[in-house]
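Worked example 2:
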Amino acid sequence: MTSLAVGVVLCLTGWITLYILLCNTSGSHGSEWNCRLVTLLHGILAVCITAYIGYVDGPWPFTHPGTKNTPLQITAMVISLGYFIFDMGWCVYFRTEGPMMLIHHTMSILGILLTLSLGESGIESCAVLFGSEITNPLLQARWFLRQLGRYESLTGEAVDVLFVVLFVFMRIAVGGRMLYCELISPRPMFIIKCGGVAMYVLSWVFMVDIGRFAYRKSQSKYRRWRDQHRLKTVNRHDGKTD
């Protein structure tokens, strides 16, 4: 446990150091810009490591939940734990996120701590990390496009569509299948299963917010199209009258 604690402290220090370096080299962009760059880097790194764990190193999370943690799984969880502690502290200090994101970070921290302390179910935690972080680059790209004034474009539309589709597929569909395999397996501890249920419920809470966003955006696009269609009709009518 001492080596794990040292690893978490080192990773936390690394994320803080990266953030400070970004602030010193690109301070004109502001604190949130640099924090989101750190978030983007963590998302890409976490997806790459956990994808390798799930698809190459193994075991397969759908068939072998509750197995002992491997060194690579531990490394992935320690890296992400250090990041979540950093980002949690940053969000609390700057008060940029709402309650749901803080709950998500708290549950992620507690879940990883529990998995590391028990020494098992690391493959499930890595699978959850993969499913959670695979949409992260798109979420950050959306924010950066807004800051650059390029969100209202074809690129912005593509990012939104890809984010919604990927979220529904990974967090709801695949996540639901993963939870089912977790619950029916006799290997994972009861507390791990409870954590899986909690994370899946949280995904549905986010899904409701995303559904509302998608509905509002589709309604806005429909009204814009309707107004443009009416304007073209009026213009054609005026042209014939002339």
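Residues 14 and 82 are 8 Å apart (CA to CA). Residues 190-241 form the longest helix (52 residues).
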